Amino acid sequence: MPERISAYGDHKGDGLMQLAFTLPVPKTRAGRAAAVALVEGMGLADVHVVHAEELTEGYTYFIVYALNSATVAYDELADQRSVDEQLTHDEIEALIRERVGRPLVVVGASTGSDTHTVGIDAILNLKGYDGHHGLEAYRWFRAYNMGSQVANGDLVAKALEVDADAILVSQTVTQQGLHVQNLTQLVDMLEAEGLRDRVVLCCGGHLISDELAKELGFDAGFSKGTYPHHVAAFLARTWIERLEPSVAVGG
Q1: Cβ(169)–Cβ(109) under 8 Å?
Q2: Relative to the CA of 137, which of 41, 47, 48, 80 has its CA 20 to 30 Å away?
Q3: Residue 181 forms beta bridges with which residues?
Q4: Nearest to 64, CA basis, from 16, 19, 8, 15
Q5: Is 0.90 topped by the overall pTM?
Q6: In angstroms, rounded to a whole number, what is the distance separating the alpha carbons of residues 69 and 63?
Q7: Cα–chain-centroid distance for residue 52?
Q8: 152 with 112: CB under 8 angstroms?
């Protein structure tokens, strides 16, 4: 049976967890009791409030320690994407150089009415994000960032123009579900052009999950916590699997 793991606090497997949250209560004994009751209601035990700070009148920020008896079989959750995340910039470069033999061409944009470029800029631009350089910093990628409010037709046209290997789309989730319609339309247009099976198609956004992306016809979805090298590794590995389908990358 796979090894089951639990939360780590003072020592391995002790189940100790730290929680932080704010409640609309004053910093009083009753307020602390409310914090304890809330955490106990989650099924946690041995609950202790270790810090309470009044943020403003009637609102208190709590830090709480508690024991969680739950465990998880980590090995059953570790997939190829987890392996991808461990590859370094240099390792990704070497994979493409040695196994693909040419730079991978990537086109990205925030499409439809989306005006936000923070996500696509973080992945593609040289500056990158949080000390992680974007795909422009890789010798073995050719990255084209089309910016925001790009029509799906223009994105497809650019992909055809530069013979793209991958298309990256950044989308802000909308209450009306317009992002889903826009992403679905892109897939339909690529299929109509006979381009869908020729590119690695990825989308990303704050609340876009891998599951949603695949349901809509994309190869992968990237959400919060994604760095440029995560996307770069996925693109490299996916292309290598297409060229050498029996070969695992990084495994």
Answers
A1: yes
A2: 80
A3: none
A4: 19
A5: no
A6: 19
A7: 32
A8: yes
Just list the catalytic residues.
Answer: 127
Record the tokens describing residue 58, joined without a space: 């009637």
Per-residue confidence (pLDDT) for residue 78, from 0 to 100: 62
Domains (range + CATH), the chain:
4-67 (3.30.30.60), 79-243 (3.40.50.280)
Radius of gyration of the chain (CA): 23
Q: What is the mean pLDDT of the chain?
A: 90
pLDDT score of 227: 92
Let me know the angle formed at the C-alpha of 213 by 154 and 89, rounded to the nearest 5 degrees. 80
Token readout for 156 is: 């497809």
- CA–CA distance, 205 with 199 (Å, rounded to integer): 20
Residue 127 pLDDT grade (very low, low, confident, very high; cuts 50, 70, 90)? very high
